[in-house]
Specification:
With 123 residues, this protein is mostly helical. 81% of the residues lie in helices and 8% in strands. It contains 2 helices and 2 strands. It has a two-stranded antiparallel sheet with strand order 1-2. α1 packs antiparallel against α2. The termini are close together. InterPro entries: PFD_beta-like, Prefoldin. Keywords: Chaperone, Coiled coil.
């Protein structure tokens, strides 16, 4: 078995494992953001039910601060828009990682086949 082939195989395997780790991390981020998006959708729904002259409070640290309902709605809309943008970015990252993993898997298969051929050639 060639030392060069073995080193290439080890490097591709390391890259593949790193890609899998990044994929898992990204999927966890997506789940977290989806949860936040659902929470904000519930808040938006509640804010739509109240009148413009109602009292709304925003929790900032340990303090409740009075906020206008219109301002609260705008804040929730902006937050939801930001979260949706982040979800889109993460979905693009996942797609890219899928492509990368497929490529690395193909390289791994090729290198393993090459190693088998090299081992069969040895007496």
């Amino acid at each position: 078995m060639s030392e060069e082939t073995q080193q290439k195989l080890q490097q591709v395997l390391t890259d593949f494992k790193a890609s899998q780790k990044q994929y898992s991390k990204t999927v966890a981020q997506v789940r977290k953001l989806e949860g936040q998006l659902q929470e904000n959708a519930a808040v938006k729904k509640e804010l739509e039910l109240i009148k413009d002259d109602a009292e709304v409070f925003k929790l900032i640290g340990p303090i409740l601060v009075k906020q206008e309902p219109v301002e609260a709605r705008q804040t929730v809309d902006k937050r939801m828009s930001y979260i949706q943008g982040e979800l889109k970015r993460l979905e693009d990252t996942i797609s890219s990682l899928d492509t990368k993993q497929e490529s690395l898997q193909q390289k791994l298969n090729e290198l393993q086949a090459k190693m088998v051929q090299e081992q069969q050639k040895q007496p």
